[in-house]
Design brief:
This protein has 13 helices and 14 strands. It is an alpha/beta fold and about 300 residues long. β2 and β3 form a beta hairpin. This is Ectoine/hydroxyectoine ABC transporter substrate-binding protein EhuB.
């Protein structure tokens, strides 16, 4: 698999505005809402999916969220969505590859039924599509050399130890590091995830700051490193959960609600959630808090 561009897809920093801007097309949303409930006779979307035996899902080929390996669709979102749709009586996911910025426009155009890409829930996107309740949160972690020689566990300990921390260019982690009081001279910018791992192994930085999800995935191919326990950073006194979910067309509220009922059963069962998703770097720390609601996230 290629470098996983989880960082370019992180709508929490730079993609959300672009996606929002792409979608303000007069008449498009109203046209979609008239047609996406199902057949012209008023058949519900879920009933239609059950009859045809499959649901069309879009993915952006970004590991570990949704990607194709050989002929098999893998990742957090397809694995979770396959489980949910089977419980709803729809046995098959039919995948469509999309560029990241084309995911919501393609959904609106009726090219597929659900976006299965681990998309961040942002107010800009909520204005143009329906999100499930959060499937995961993205707490932060630190990649360090094997044995964690500086004994860091979070940003406060990183500041206290006076270590040099690496962050991705354009990613939100730089603001987390600065917000924790780490001096700018101790924050190094890197272009790709593998650059961060290489800098840790080469001693150019002491720790690489990124989501625990991404770092666990990266550590699979960098055995001389280890990843700290994930933690939820704060910025301006607010916890930064960075949650993501499934995306549906506006007008498909019933389908979204049915999906949410099955999703709740999984996120409420810690062992089931971890068993389903641990191969993709998701653990108990990624389970969204019960109090974290999409309606609130959409308000900003």
């Amino acid at each position: 698999m290629a470098d996983f561009p989880h960082l370019s897809r992180r709508g929490f920093l730079n993609r959300s505005a672009a996606v929002g801007g792409l979608l303000v097309v007069p008449g498009l949303l109203s046209a979609c809402s008239k047609t996406d409930a199902g057949a012209a006779d008023g058949e519900g979307a879920l009933d239609k999916l059950r009859k045809q035996g499959f649901v069309r899902v879009a993915y952006a080929n970004e590991a570990p969220y949704g990607y194709m390996e050989g002929k098999e669709l893998k990742g957090e979102a397809p694995t979770l969505h396959r489980e949910i749709f089977k419980a709803l009586g729809v046995d098959e996911l039919k995948p469509t590859l999309s560029e990241w910025d084309g995911l919501i426009p393609g959904l609106q155009a009726g090219k597929y039924d659900v976006v299965s890409a681990g998309m961040a829930i942002t107010p800009e996107r909520c204005a143009n599509a329906l999100f499930s309740e959060p499937e995961f949160i993205s707490p932060t972690a630190l990649m360090v050399r094997k044995g964690n020689p500086k004994k860091v566990t979070d940003l406060a300990s990183a500041k206290a130890a006076g270590i040099t921390v690496g962050v991705m260019s354009g990613a939100v982690e730089a603001s987390y590091a600065k917000g924790a009081g780490i001096a700018e001279g101790k924050i190094k910018t890197l272009q790709k995830p593998q650059d961060g791992a290489d800098a840790v192994k080469g001693g150019r930085i002491d720790a690489f700051l990124l989501t625990g999800i991404s770092l666990r995935w990266l550590a699979k191919t960098n055995p001389d490193t280890e990843v700290t326990e994930a933690f939820v950073p704060e910025l301006d006194g607010k916890q930064q959960f960075s949650p993501g979910g499934a995306v549906f067309r506006q007008g498909n509220e019933d389908l979204r609600d049915s999906f949410n009922r099955e999703l709740k059963k999984i996120v409420s069962d810690r062992s089931r959630y971890v068993e389903l998703l641990q191969d993709y770097g998701f653990g108990a720390t990624e389970i969204p808090p019960a109090t974290l609601k999409t309606a609130d996230l959409c308000k900003g």
